[in-house]
Amino acid sequence: MGSIAAFGALSWSDVLRLRAAAPKRDLSIIHLFLAGGLSHLDTFDMKGNGDAKYRGPFKPIATNVPGLQVCEHLPLSAKRADRYTVIRSMTHKQSAHGAAQTLWLSGHDALPTVLAPAMGSVVMKELGPRNELPGYVFVPQPRGNNARAGFLGPRYNPFSAGEVNVGKYAVRDMDLPMGVDWSRVERRRGLQSLVDAKIRAYDTTDTFETLDSYYQSAFDLMRSPLAKKAFDVGQEPDPLRDRYGRTSMGQGCLLARRLVEAGVRFVTVSRGDNAWDHHGNIFPTLTNDFLPELDKAFATLLDDLSDRGMLESTLVIVSGEFGRTAEINVNAGRDHWPNCYSLVLAGGGVPGGLVWGASDVDGMFVKDKPVEIPDLAATIFHKLGIDTRKEYVSNIGRPFRVADGKPLEFLL
User: Fold this and answer.
1) 278: left (phi over 0), alpha (psi -120 to 50) or beta
2) For 373, how many CA atoms within 13 A lie in the half-sphere containing its CB?
3) Residue 46: closest CA among 34, 35, 56
4) With 80 as the cut, is the pLDDT of residue 213 above it?
5) Which structural domains are found in the chain, ordered by start?
6) Coil/strand/helix, residue 393
7) Four-point Cα dihedral 7, 13, 14, 20, nearest 10
8) Distances in Å between the alpha carbon of 393 and those of 136, 203, 315, 354, 387?
9) CB 97, CB 320: distance < 8 Å
10) What is the mean pLDDT of residues 280-289?
């Protein structure tokens, strides 16, 4: 800015244009996907002055950023607020889980004729894997088709890591079966190639090419010392594993850090099918289980990435597919609410200690600076150096842009 003032030659738009044209970091993404819908009113957008019948029993606490408050059940995250941005003005119109998760994971509204590829699949296609590890991993496994590659084809589907918080965790089928050695495997592959060669000429659907890519990826993983090491969370010291939390989210985040460190580009960590869908007994459930789990996992992930010098090259996203209603229902829960909700981003060049946008006094609607998911998706792709204007041809011959939105300048 000093140079701009001194020479008077560049406008602010020129600066943004030059910055956008600059080489992008080789970023990785870790998405903590709180499937079911995180209650913004009970986490990152507390309404201490709102209507008492909407507020719930939780109290806001101060963070290490003046003026920014979060829920009392997120004390570790509160101490690290200078490392993340809270967007309190997210909004969309999809109130059903399936459509909202499709929108969130792909950046596109669900369509009856086109299954949009997930962002991780687009990253896999455009940038490819860095090494023999998969480029896109889902922990424990994707739910339905929302996190898959859609019309891009199954070769860009996520690798399912399985449930990490189990004794002697291991990815299934990464070792040879009992009684089979590598010489026998190679003989089997030779026989398979002879059979394939006879019928490949009749394949008009690229089925063989897809299967070959699957087989090759499987063999690469089975042979790879790097892959075996990356998935071996048991190598981590017990104190660090305890800090993450011996939970699905905690150990999933630890595995995500190991995978990113080993070269994986995009990791989604979830607790399972709509686990955060708290239509009943939301407050004891959050107090005793979900918020402590999230707090330990998220805070420790930020510390761990920072300690290893990886936070600037790793974008961490914390979100559900929508928020929860201000009204507390007859079952002492909150229902689906896409009109206004919050998310958190850290690392990857995102400013720390920032609150963007605001909801109204009761957290029902966006008050200012609304943010929509297509713009967030465009921002993520832009940071990765992927051309958001690029078009694919879908399964029905329709042009399909990588992202429909525009990058958000405050996150660049």
Assistant:
1) beta
2) 27
3) 56
4) no
5) 20-170+231-411 (3.40.720.10), 172-229 (no CATH)
6) strand
7) 130
8) 22, 21, 29, 38, 15
9) no
10) 98
DSSP conformational letter for 224: -
Residue with tokens 């029905």: 396
Average pLDDT across the chain, whole number: 89
Residues with Cβ within 8 Å of residue 176, at least 6 apart in sequence = 182, 185, 222
pTM of the model: 0.88
Nearby residues of 50 by Cβ (< 8 Å), 6 or more positions away: 326, 361, 362, 363
pLDDT tens for 342-393 read 999 999 999 999 999 999 999 999 999 999 999 999 999 999 999 999 999 9
Q: Which of 386, 350, 310, 306 is nearest to 120 (CA)?
A: 386
Residues in the chain: 412
Q: How many Å apart are CA 87 and CA 369, to the nearest integer?
A: 9
Q: Is 160 exposed, middle or buried (0-12, 13-18, 19+ CB in 10 A)?
A: middle
pLDDT category of residue 22 using cuts at 50, 70 and 90 = very low
